[in-house]
Queue: 2 jobs
Job 1
Amino acid sequence: MKPACIFDLDGVIVDTAKYHYLAWKRLANSLGFDFTEHDNEQLKGVSRVESLKLILRLGGKQLDDAEFDAALVRKNGWYLEYIQQIGPEEILPGAAEFLTSVRAQGIKVALGSASKNAVLILERIQLLDQFDAIVDGNKVSKAKPDPEVFLKAAEELAVPASACIVFEDAVAGVQAARNAGMKVVGIGSAAVLDQAHFVLPNFAGLSIADVLARFA
Ligand code: G6P
Ligand code: MG
């Protein structure tokens, strides 16, 4: 069975994780508490709503429903402001070349991201046409580590979960891939992503043949 590749977006294909962090930190500060990069690890890969719940728990703060919704809108407004200027130069090292190597093998490619801004970002970095299926935050109702986003991506590609290889930078995302019964390559720190089958710092110099050899 030919494998398929499912890519997370933020922190895997494009360097937007830092802008999510800045926007959440700004929100936390506006609510009267701080939010560190260490805290931010828990938010990577987690949906907007679940992220805000986590942040409020960390800050020991409660918001009523209207304030909660307003905070979500504020965070996304700041985030959109930060990413307004992004372009292909924010593609992470080797990611575009890696995608090309995958497609050259005739291997199907899906996006599996919690972000509701995914299509906008893929358009800006000019990679939208590299994906056979896009499953983003607008298509799922359960946040990672729930496997829904990756199972939907496999379904859209018509490939069984066991043949899918997921690329993830987030603890919750690695867990979601595991929960989907998929293979998972961590992108980032091996100490953080210890549940991945193996971890790479990024895609620089890497081709799909190298990854398939690791799983052979
Ligand atoms: C990705 C990021 C998270 C972000 C989530 C929702 O998974 O890693 O940090 O909270 O998407 O993104 P959105 O663009 O919809 O706020
Ligand atoms: Mg990510």
Note: Residues 8, 10-12, 44-45, 169-170, 173 surround magnesium ion (ligand 2) (CB under 6 Å).
Job 2
Amino acid sequence: MGVTDEETEGLIARDHSLEQALLGSILATVPDALIVIDMAGRIISFSAAAQRMFQYAESDVLGENISMLMPSPDRERHDGYIDHYVQTGEKRIIGVGRLTTARRRDGSTFPIELSVGEVRDERQRLFTGFIRDLTERQKTERRVADLQAELAHASRVTAMGTLASALAHELNQPLTAIANYLEAGRDLLDGEGPVDREMLREAMAESAAQALRAGEIIRSLREFIRRGETMRQPEPLRGLLAEGAALAFIGMDSRGIDMDISVDKDVDKVFVNRVQMQQVIINLTKNAVEAMDDSPVRILRLTAAPAADGRVEVVIADSGPGLEPNMSRTLFTPFTTSKASGMGVGLSISQTIVEGHGGRIWAMPSPWGGTAFHFTLDSAD
Ligand code: ADP
């Protein structure tokens, strides 16, 4: 028995209304907000969760520009973002997702995770945005991070204390020997009659040997620290950068920061110790954000691209005031800081970790007059 055209149409129509009802019920229940906009950025759909999250009724926002839900600088720039995508096809956010900030009706801002999709037919393109409110999650993460920071600080102090006493202990012996040999040499020179050149020579040769031994002790301790903690495996770089930056932002004033993470399509995994590498990304990102405290324009860019010899080069660049002139020489030396409450160990730890991974780290001016920290890693692809 065949199915008539009318019957088929009826089935399709029923299917269509079922789909609509299903979609409606999903949207009413998921905690994430869904907002649909057209190519001009005008809001054409605003889910119930979006209404709760942003404190606007759907009728208040329909037809309005989506930028009303963003704080500066995205608010002023969003039309440009859409134009850029429509003209170049370059996807900066579509299909990727991003941690950013949104603005409620009363002007207050809150952290969100935004995932953008695109729907098109031959007539038009629409963009769908799923938004998750991270306020609660950030509060919890901040508590965890505070505890972790305390713990990290405590263990760093302990580690430094242990290292310092180990060094003092190990170095005491060659230093005492050097002092003894040099004093013996001085006594030989001060003595009556001709100087016993052979004995003097021996005293000097011995003290030189002891000085070399002291250097060897320091070197092997450093090796030990490096080797002890390094367990490396392939890790996706984009995830590392996104997580590191998100962790760095916790507890910091990240308002008005124009942040972007862009990883070259040829870069995927890097061969690293995840925890250590996150430490590097957190240190560099925190420094960048702190440097931009008083900057009118706050741009933060984390980028990664292939470099020579199967390596990957990561750059963390800011639009702050740049390095203080007297800092650039001693940047990576422990305990050098230009901050009132700085400890001055972040960059030196980052250098130890990057070099422990066989890479290099250096600083250069950024395109916005700030600083760009570069470092290299081994690609795991
Ligand atoms: P701390 O942040 O505790 O001072 P660091 O070792 O991380 O220690 O940094 C050392 C110094 O390097 C900082 O005090 C600052 O002067 C300088 N510095 C680091 N990053 C930047 C940056 N992005 N822009 C300007 N100066 C920076």
Note: The longest helix spans residues 135-190.
